[in-house]
Amino acid sequence: MKKSIASFLLGTALAVTTAGAAFAQDKTVKIGALSDQSGLYADLGGPGSTLAAQMAVEDSGLAAKGWKIDVISGDHQNKPDIGTAIARQWFDVDKVDVIVDVPNSGVALAVNNVIKEKNGVYINSGAATSDLTNAQCSPNTVHWTYDTYMLAHTTGQALVKAGGDSWFFLTADYAFGAALERDTTAVVTANGGKIVGGVKHPLNTPDFSSFLLQAQASKAKIIGLANAGGDTTNSIKQAAEFGIGKGGQKLAALLLFLTDVKAIGLETAQGLNFTETFYWDMNDQTRAFSKRFADKMKSNAPPTMVQAGVYAGVRHYLKALDALGGNPHDGVKVVDKMKSMPTEDDLFGKGEIQPNGRTIHSAYLFEVKKPSESKGPWDFYKLVGSVPGDQAFTPLAESKCALLKK
Amino acid sequence: MQALYAQLLVGLINGSFYALLSLGLAVIFGMLNIINFAHGALYMMGAFVAYFLLSLGGINYWWALLFAPIIVGIFGMILERTMLQWLAGLDHLYGLLLTFGLALIIQGVFQNYFGSSGLPYSIPDALKGGMNLGFMYLPIYRGWVVVFSLVVCFATWYLIERTRLGAYLRAATENPTLVRAFGINVPRMITLTYGLGVGLAALAGVLSAPINQVRPLMGENVIIVVFAVVVIGGMGSIMGSIITGFALGVIEGLTKYFYPEASNTVVFVLMVLVLLVKPTGLTGRAA
Amino acid sequence: MTVATDDTLPATPRALRDEMIVFVVMAVLLAAVPFTKIYPFFVMQALCFALLACAFNLLIGYGGLLSFGHAMFLGTAGYVSGHALKVWGLPPELGILAGTAAAAGLAVITGLIAIRRQGIYFAMITLALSQLLYFIYLQAPFTHGEDGIQGIPQGYLFGIFNLANPTILYYTVLAGFLFGFLVIFRAINSPFGEVLKAIRENEQRAISLGYKTDQYKLIAYILSGTLAGLAGALKVFVAQNASLTDVEVAMSGLIVLMTLVGGLGTVFGPVFGAFVIVAMQQYLSGLGQWVTVIQGSVFVICVLVFRRGVVGEFAHFFRRSL
Known about the structure:
Number of domains of chain B: 1
Strand order of the largest sheet of chain A: 2-1-3-4-5
Oligomer: heterotrimer
Distance between the termini of chain A: 26 Å
Number of domains of chain A: 2
Radius of gyration of chain A: 22 Å
Strand content of chain A: 15-25%
Shape of chain B: globular
Number of strands of chain A: 15
Helix content of chain B: over 70%
């Protein structure tokens, strides 16, 4: 009883404020770019994501229509506690409307709950976990760019079709690695390939030689790396040392970013297969955007797919606000509007946002170039294949998202 | 069976790093009674110095093996002179806290300037490639790491246990006042010892640069394992730390093969077991 | 760890009175927070860490044992409470109890191992044990690896108080903190505490006086671990998640830092230190990794020139016991 009275009061209070705001045609927006500014994910998100959000605001042209849009940034230091504390403070004190980026699955899921509670808008681009739009989906959340399901499916499917029909997994021994391995296994077997073995390695292993020896002995055509970050770069580096590429086996990194390839170097990374949804050198539009972006970056680096996703997400969000004619400061309402409009931008092309919050766009399988093929400091990839969005991401029928049951 | 030989060899390679690092810790502990929490950070610095020598100065791996330990060793001696020496006479735990703080500072600064993804460092041309041993493909570089660390470990052991300088060192630990009475500059010996221990950490860093990505946090986890190694071996003994280092590398390697899920915990579990049976560590004297 | 305490005053009635006055002032100030403009979530977080630091301080400040693995109690209690609330659907009071009990159990097991050595060895053993636990939690299914346990329901305390209400939650956390604080306060000023101090000053002498010092140390360790667990269980309600961050070595280091800044072996130092460090993390978060550098520098400065900590120096200056 108490609860219902409280929620009734809260409901009226909300109704009054939102009605008031809509009446005044409020055109102020505050965007919070919450990322890892200096740790593991800083290079692929971090300051570049804040820049991407700012560029999206400038490119939207809403300032000319009388909108006042601010972008602020925060550092969650890869700690769920700090991430949620910042998010709460942004909503309670700074009156932020939308939080973007948020790499690191643990932080992303924690922040997801806060945003739902505060009825804000969440445009996640940096996190890998497909739970954001599956078991833990929220009416306030849009997940752009990529997730574990998509990575597993695209890489698995494309490589099996290209003849890589026997797999050995090197899997990081925790939830993320297990999810990647499970999803990839499903798609490999569904396409007629087989799994000949696998080994679970602890997180942050400095030495992969034992595991690589087992992979080598398995004679599998593809060695799938179901790990991330330092583990991926170290395993790739040491695989080269053990002559794994030369022995005819191919490495498939299930999660790899442009910045990782840069860090490993082409000499070692050449021939590696992996999936991304954005690469700066895809077409004239991506090149034009990436040039503008790189000019403003301290490191002159082109955007990663995560940063591109932040840009595209913010653009779409502002389009929805423009269509609403003002900022209702009501997260669910804005996200519903975003879902009702097809997405289209220079970076990801045409797409849509599914009812569970998943943004659907094409995914691409790339191979790292040989050093001799590379013509510039960031000329790393060649396109091997592509998978249309509706095949790359979790089919709605398989999703456990509660929003789909209505 | 063949696979087992391969895993044994691989474990030995890993053990080389543990041995070098725990040896450095043991040398420092023996003389200064300080557990050097900054050891991992200094190991990382060794790798970074090798990277800078190559990318900025064009100085190759072989010279880096010499210069990086010297540069980092000098840095360590400055730390000892400016900070650690003021802790003489205080509870040893303050040394642990101070070096923990130093580790945070060093790692933080490197993270700020170089991010976390790391920098590439390739294997020197002379050590590229590998050879087929029948039971495994051994990258030449890995073989080099084992041989080289064995040589360094035993050279250090010889220096401390068998030379006149080493005798002074050991005497200075036992009875500093008496040694000073013989006209030996004890504080300078302490500084040099710290430099030596730090240099060993940096050397391990250079050795690992071509194998691992050169990253600011590369020493963060390794150092805790090495702590456990040192507890198992008993901190008093130079030879003990060398042997335990190699032995635990092999045990960890075998775990990676038989039960990989436990490979990062096996050292800690062994530590618990050793403590239950022999609280002073395998070769240690009573503290 | 004997140095910071060379001039600790004996537990005279005056010292006790001083401490009681400060305690009342602290309790009143904290109780007034919801009526001010101070952001309650910040204070709640700081209170959890303050209790944690006080528990840690009981061990180092009065028992002379430096634990470099206290995060294991924080994290264990957090995971167990979180799991109990979310999966088993237990009410908050039982959730807190479950988490605290788990930490107590862990303290018994690890205590029996760690207590076998002293000084630096004790620090390294606790560090290694917490790292062992970190890897276990990383792989255990119920912790959900790096995702952590998310969206933990806050529920109704005793079926009445809605903990989703920030003010009610605040007073619940405050009550938990004050309870833990008083337990520690009581322990320090009891005969048990006197024996602990005697062991810290000279263990051989205490043994020759006929005390079974190992038992005293073990009890202090278990009490400390249990209260650190209480802090972890309370923190679950504030953060609504339980994650690996709380079991990491960095967290153990942070606990040491809080206590060091405030003053090892002082009654109120850890509370002060926790507020300083949490505020630093919060307000300097824009500086990224420089926060780590600043924390490291604070460590170095404290150890080199400021070994009594802020509260310790203050108390020393006024010849008071705080």
